[in-house]
Amino acid sequence: MANGEQVMRNKQVLLRDYVTGFPKESDMQLSTTGTITLKLPQGSTGVLVKNFYLSCDPYIRTQMTKPLSDAPSSFLTFTPGSPITGYGVAKVLESADARFKQGDLVWGFTGWEEYTVINATHIESLFKIENTDVPLSYYTGILGMPGMTAYAGFYEVCSPKKGETVYISAASGAVGQLVGQFAKLSGCYVVGSAGTKEKVDLLKNKFGFDEAFNYKEEPNLDAALKRYFPEGIDIYFENVGGKMLDAVLLNMRFRGRIAVCGMISQYNLEKPEGVQNLMSLIYKEVRIQGFGVLNYYHLYEKFLEMVLPAIKEGKITYVEDVVEGLESAPSALIGLFTGRNVGKQVVVVSRE
């Protein structure tokens, strides 16, 4: 106790230094010496939370790089010596914001640490959890940012129609597995690619994809796509970039749509790969659109109205890869880039 206020140890995962190339566990550091006073600082307009679950997402790698002078302000990078930040599920211990009160369960931006003061900047992306009859960890995935990303990218950007053909790369990941199931619910023909036999089987047998293939076993991606899409692709949900995008461009149908969600093949390259087949966009009048989920959070209630009943009725299923403890977080994050995870990668900080 200090002045009657409770001081707690606050275990944290810190960024050691800016990263170039492929990230390593040693680029991060587990700190067990920090403490935190379990009271908001005087004058704070933020929220003090205890973290339960953290979300490992590929985009985090892009924030470990030294910022470019011309980078948009929305692409914030981490500061060496400070905690990694990302999405998580937490419990409010104290709030200076009228929208939240002590005891509320929330999801949104938080620190890779046991306790976090979420400041006014990130409170706008903090959501109160109203539905607790599903696993709380789902709010790092299907009911959180990845779920909203899948929903916004597929429905808002791609505008699917029944009977269309849909291809999803990195299809067994946190977002891809949901896009595929949304596409099936919309009456589309769905094919996904992944990097292991286990993941391919998951796509077909668990998530209900019509077909799936292991891209590592395909010497010619163009030929593979022509095999699964002899009439071409109406919608491509892009998670990979590089050679995969190049092959897809050759196989898009007239007025097809490409939603660019991520490009995991490029995040660790010091010099990104070029794309050769962009002329296909002209010949086939293909629309390619990048999108950021932050611009679609106003649709969150509409999203919940669709997805919560689908979960409860068994129409949508979700697979998580869960590791225990903050000390496991660096390894879990690195594992995303070697395909070690099966499903949504979650880190348990505390179960209560």
UniProtKB/TrEMBL annotation:
CDD domains associated with the record: double_bond_reductase_like
Protein name (Swiss-Prot/TrEMBL): Ketone/zingerone synthase 2
Record Pfam families: ADH_N_2, ADH_zinc_N
Ranges where the Enoyl reductase (ER) domain occurs: 31-347
Keywords: Oxidoreductase
Keyword Protein biosynthesis among UniProt keywords: no
Organism: Rubus idaeus
Gene behind this protein: ZS2
SMART domains per record: PKS_ER
Record bears the keyword Lipid metabolism: no
Stretches that traverse the bilayer: none
Superkingdom of source: Eukaryota
A GO molecular function held by the record: 2-alkenal reductase [NAD(P)H] activity
